[in-house]
Amino acid sequence: MHSFLNSWATYLSSQLNTLLPAGYFAEANVQFGVEIDVATFEEPGATPATGWIAPPPQNSLPLEFPGAVVEIGIFSKSGGPLLAGAIELVSPTNKDRQLHRDALVSKCAAYIQAGVGLVLVDVVTERFADLHRELLIRLGADDPVCEPTLSGSAYRPVERGDTTVLDVWREPIAVDQPLPTLPLWLRGGLCLPVELEATYERTCIEQRVQPAA
Q: Per the structure, how many domains does the chain have?
C-alpha cells in the first residue's frame, strides 16, 4: 500500500504540473515513518568538531507519531514558495486510531483556515472512518446529510461579500467504479481538475496491481 500511494502521489503531481501556469509547481510529499538524518549518527569514538559533548537525556519517553503523510502540495513561487493548494491521500494508518484521525483532520482544517484549497481522497476500505464529516465538525460546519464514508472531497474557503464560506464538493467512491475528477481551487482563484481515475489507473498499471487494458 505504501508503494502504491507513493506512486499515485507522484503521478498526481505530474498531472497537475502539466496544467499549472508559470510560477506554480506541484510536489509530492510522502512519509511513512520518522525520517532519520544520517548525519545524526555518531561514529564510535568520534569527537564532535566543537569539542562539546551533550549530556545524556534526563528521560526517554515513548512517542507515537501521527500516521503517514501522503500529500501533494501546489506552490506559488511568488514571494515564496507559498502553499496554494493541497491534496491529501488517506492511508490505512490515518484511519487506524483516533490519534491518527485527529492529526489528519487537524492538518486539513489548518489548510482550509489558512485559505488553502484542499482535496481529500479516501479509498481505504479496510478501516471505517468518515474523515470528511470529522473535518466539517472540526470546522464547525457539519453537513447533516449522511453520505458514504469513502469519498473524494474538495474544499474551497472563499469570501463572498462580507461572509467567508466553505464551498464543498463530495463524490462517493465505490469499489469497481470510476474515481471522480475533483476541483482543486488555489489561492487567487485558479482552479485545476484533479483527475483521480486516470492517475489511479496509471498507478495500478505501473505497480502491476491490474493488467494494462
A: 1
Range of the domain at 146: 2-29+64-206
Per the domain annotation, does 212 fall within a domain?
A: no
> Is 51 a domain residue?
no
Q: Structure pTM?
A: 0.81
Q: What 3 state SS string does the chain have? A: CHHHHHHHHHHHHHHHHCCCCCCEEEEEEEECCCCCCHHHCCCCCCCCCCCCCCCCCCCCCCCCCCCCEEEEEEEECCCCCEEEEEEEECCHHHCCCHHHHHHHHHHHHHHHHCCCEEEEEECCCCCCCCHHHHHHHHCCCCCCCCCCCCEEEEEEEEEECCEEEEEEEEEECCCCCCCCEEEEECCCCCEEEEEHHHHHHHHHHHCCCCCCC
- Establish if 55 belongs to a structural domain: no
pLDDT tens for residues 19-52?
999 999 999 988 865 444 433 444 455 555 567 8
Does a structural domain hold residue 141? Answer: yes
